[in-house]
Structure formats: structure tokens, C-alpha cells
Design brief:
The complex is a heterodimer of chains A (286) and B (182). Chain A is an alpha+beta fold and 286 residues long. Chain A is built from ten helices and six strands; from the N terminus they run αααααααααββββββα. A six-stranded antiparallel β-sheet of chain A has the order 1-2-3-6-5-4, sandwiched between helices. In chain A, strand 2 and strand 3 form a beta hairpin. In chain A, helix 4 packs antiparallel against helix 5, helix 6 runs antiparallel to helix 7 and helix 6 packs across helix 8. Chain A is elongated, with a radius of gyration of 28 Å. By secondary structure, chain B is mostly helical. In chain B, helix 2 packs parallel to helix 4 and helix 7 packs across helix 9. The chains are: A alpha+beta (286), B mainly alpha (182).
């Protein structure tokens, strides 16, 4: 035992984290050192008081209820839209039973994905491969760039994207806004859950558009942008323009069914195929 | 373990998870949000949980920490930035505080709780969370390191500093109340 009683050693001994030899040395020292005994007693009382002060908080009963209400599993998460609706219902139950979901966190997540895309648009070539793409690349490049620069830089726009959480409400509002039927697509089999949607209004200014937003594990996000098909946008109907390099890890695909233009954006390029396939299957009722 | 059993077992620790969430978020609503998200993630991942090691409580704490840090990174706000959490931190035990010249053991401990509570509130968040896991949850240094995903030396230094700061507050109180021996 050091002559000057080492506080870190005393604490390790009291915490049961010291070696047997260290414990024996401290025990021996306490027999002849009254100050050390006081010090040890003080340390023990400190822990006791820390326990009393910090350990008194308990979770409110409403939190217990909210978690129980929200924990009922969906029967089968691969069940198309009903699973997404069920999850949404659970989350609503949580929010109603307990504190609010943090909208800022959601907006920030959206900013991450859209911001990453925006950077990629200006930093890398837009299209690779797909020699039979008939769309003028410059037009689509301009189209995507306008959309994402605006989205990523405007906080109010970001919040609008997740204005609605209930899939039924999202479908209703976007259908009204765009004048074409909009469906919230079930991406659960690709690991994504629907987290909200809403109007986007770009591009260009005044032209209605909307977003459907999804989130998977590890913060991966997917966004499905929709806006009415316009004659001036020469995207070949049904053909997916993909392999769009956006940023280091993001990717995008775009196509139209001649009523709406769809653009899928994912943070992780490995998600692109699955998200695009599911979205196209839903759009074309495959 | 089936889902119902897992849920029951997980909910037994909700008070502990909430306490930790309060230390991280510093606001009941945000703490509640953190706890809800933690349990949603835990229940979704229940199939992958293996009841071994430090057990379900440590696992819940770990999820909670990940949820909190993910939010902090995204929101760029909160009690302290993630980067700030590690600022000036090292795993070395700091030099020992001077030998006290007063008798802490003779303090009227029943009346020092308010002072102690204030001192705990003023601790850096990373000190408070380690203090909680040690003082309330009774976790070992290794378990705390695992939950917080930091080296065990960092756990020891944070805990040592936190206790040292609290003891300093008590020594000041002892002096104020005339318990100083010298």
C-alpha cells in the first residue's frame, strides 16, 4: 500500500476491482491508519448517497403503457402494406401514450440523405452504362439537381416532407396535391419502414411534388420522390434510368408511368435494386 | 425465450433504462422518446438476443446509448456534441487529489444530499452516466466499458474524476460547516 493512500486504489478495492494483493494491503493499512478508515467510510457513504440520489427516478406509468401498446408485433412483416400500416399504428400509439417523436431528428435524417445526394450530383457523372437510355441526360441531371439542392438547403421544405405520418393521410393528401393517384409503397421486404410523407413543391417553383420517406436499420434511408409526368420531361415510360452515382454511397433511379415521375433515392447503393423493384412492382401492379 | 417472455424481462428494467435516458437527455419528454425507441429496437431485435454476458439490462443500455448518440449526431444538439464527449478525455487516471485534512465521515450526510445532487447535475454527461452505471446499477468497470463502447481505462478515469469532484464538493461543505480539523 502506498504511504500516501492512493484514492484510485482505495476506490478499486471498494469496487471489487482490485487484485487480492491490493485488497490485503489496504486491509492491513486500515488497522493502523485512522485517516484511511475515515476516507474509506467517506467513499462508501458517497456511493450510498449517489445511489439514493440518482436511483430514485422511475419511468412514468404512461411510458410502460406506451411501450406495451406499441410492442405488439405485426403478424408478418412481409405482408405488403398492412404491415406498414400496423407499424405506423404502433408508432402512433406510442406517441399518443407517451412523449412526442422528435421531428427534428427526422428532418435531420432527411437532410443527411438529400445532402449526400446533392453533393454527388455535382461531383460525379450522373449516368453510367444504359446505352439505350433515350432521355437527354442533361435534362435529367438538371432536374435532379434542382430538386435536391432545393430540398437539402431549405429546412422548411425538409419538414414538409414528413408532414404526414399516417400512410392513409399521405396517400390522400398527395393524391389531392398531384392530381394523380399516389400510393404509399410497402418496402418492408427490403427492410424499410415508412416514416412519413408530404408535399415538396419543387421543381420548378409552383409545380407540385411529394416525397415518401422510409427508414431501415443503421440509419439507412430511402426516399421516393413523385411528381406529375410532364411532356417536357423526356423520360421513356417504364424504363428505369438507374446506376446513377450520387455521392460515395448513395444511388438513384428514375422512371415514369406517364402519370407520375418516380425517383428513388437511397443512402446505400446496395438498397437501390430492391427498393426500385418493389416500387415498380407496386406502380405497375406486378 | 419467446417474445412475451422477452418483453416481460425487458420491461423489468424500464426504470433503469429511463434513469439512464434522463441522464443523457436531461428532459423527461426526450428521455421518454429515447426509452420508447430503445424498446422498439430491442423488441424488434429480440430474436437475435442471446441471454449471456452482462444480460438484457446491459444490452438495453447499449441500445439506448446508440440511439442517443445517433440522435445527437443527427441533431447536432443536446447536452454536448458527440465530439465534445471525448474532448480532453484520456484513459489515464489523473493525479490523486490531495489527502483531505478534514473528516468527511463526520459530515451530517443526511443534510448533504442537496449539495451532492447539485454537484452531480454539474458533472459532465459522460461522468454522470458512468457514475449512474456504477453507483446505481452496480455494474463492473468491464460492463460499463461494454455498454458505452469505451476502453475500460476511460471508465476508470471518468469514474475516478467524478468521485473526486463530488468529494471536493463535500470537502467544501465540510469547511463551510466547520468540520475542518485544522
Amino acid at each position: 500500500m502506498p504511504e500516501k493512500h492512493d484514492a484510485s486504489l482505495i476506490r478499486r478495492v471498494l469496487d471489487g476491482e482490485a487484485t487480492a494483493e491490493e485488497r490485503r494491503a489496504l486491509d492491513a493499512a486500515t488497522e493502523t491508519d485512522a485517516a484511511l478508515r475515515d476516507r474509506i467510510a467517506s467513499e462508501e457513504r458517497l456511493r450510498e448517497r449517489v445511489h439514493a440520489i440518482m436511483g430514485s427516478a422511475a419511468a412514468p406509468a404512461s411510458l410502460h403503457d406506451a411501450i406495451r401498446a406499441g410492442s405488439a408485433p405485426a403478424a408478418n412483416e412481409s405482408l405488403s402494406f398492412s404491415a406498414a400500416q400496423e407499424e405506423q399504428r404502433q408508432r402512433q400509439a406510442l406517441r399518443q401514450g407517451g412523449p412526442r417523436l422528435n421531428l427534428l431528428a427526422l428532418a435531420a435524417s432527411i437532410a443527411i440523405i438529400l445532402g449526400a445526394v446533392g453533393i454527388g450530383i455535382f461531383g460525379t457523372p450522373l449516368f453510367t452504362g444504359s446505352s439505350d437510355v433515350v432521355t437527354p441526360i442533361a435534362d435529367i441531371k438538371s432536374y435532379i439537381a434542382n430538386e435536391h439542392v432545393r430540398c437539402a438547403s431549405d429546412g422548411d421544405v425538409l419538414k414538409q416532407k414528413a408532414k404526414y405520418r399516417d400512410p392513409v393521410v399521405v396517400e390522400r393528401e398527395l393524391t389531392l396535391l398531384l392530381g394523380e393517384p399516389v400510393r404509399v409503397i410497402d418496402l418492408s421486404s427490403a427492410g424499410f419502414r415508412f416514416i412519413g410523407g408530404g408535399p415538396c413543391h419543387v421543381p420548378p417553383a409552383g409545380s407540385p411534388s411529394g416525397h415518401l420517406l422510409y427508414q431501415a436499420g443503421n440509419g439507412r434511408m430511402a426516399s421516393v420522390f413523385v411528381e406529375p409526368y410532364q411532356d417536357g420531361v423526356a423520360i421513356q415510360p417504364g424504363r428505369v434510368v438507374t446506376d446513377v452515382k450520387v455521392g460515395l454511397s448513395g444511388a438513384s433511379a428514375i422512371w415514369t408511368d406517364e402519370s407520375l415521375i418516380y425517383m428513388v433515392v437511397v443512402c446505400n447503393s446496395t438498397d437501390l435494386d430492391a427498393v426500385t423493384r418493389l416500387t415498380q412492382n407496386a406502380v405497375f401492379n406486378r | 425465450m419467446d417474445r412475451a417472455q422477452f418483453e416481460q424481462l425487458a420491461l423489468e428494467h424500464i426504470d433503469a433504462v429511463y434513469r439512464m435516458a434522463m441522464q443523457l437527455a436531461r428532459h423527461p419528454d426526450e428521455a421518454g422518446d429515447l426509452v420508447q425507441e430503445t424498446y422498439l429496437k430491442a423488441l424488434k431485435a429480440a430474436d437475435g438476443f442471446e441471454e449471456k454476458g452482462a444480460g438484457i439490462r446491459a444490452w438495453l443500455f447499449k441500445i439506448l446509448h446508440n440511439v442517443f448518440y445517433s440522435r445527437t449526431r443527427r441533431q447536432k444538439r443536446g447536452p454536448m456534441s458527440v465530439e465534445g464527449f471525448h474532448e480532453g478525455d484520456d484513459s489515464a487516471i489523473p493525479p490523486d487529489e490531495p489527502e483531505p485534512a478534514w473528516d468527511l465521515a463526520s459530515l451530517d450526510w443526511e443534510h448533504v444530499d442537496e449539495r451532492l445532487k447539485k454537484a452531480i447535475e454539474e458533472l459532465r454527461p459522460e461522468y454522470r452516466t458512468v457514475l449512474l452505471l456504477w453507483g446505481v446499477e452496480g455494474m463492473k468497470y468491464r460492463e460499463i466499458a461494454d455498454v458505452q463502447e469505451i476502453p475500460i481505462g476511460t471508465v476508470m478515469s471518468r469514474l475516478h474524476r467524478a468521485r473526486g469532484l463530488l468529494m471536493s464538493q463535500l470537502s467544501e461543505l465540510a469547511e463551510e460547516t466547520g468540520l475542518n480539523r485544522s
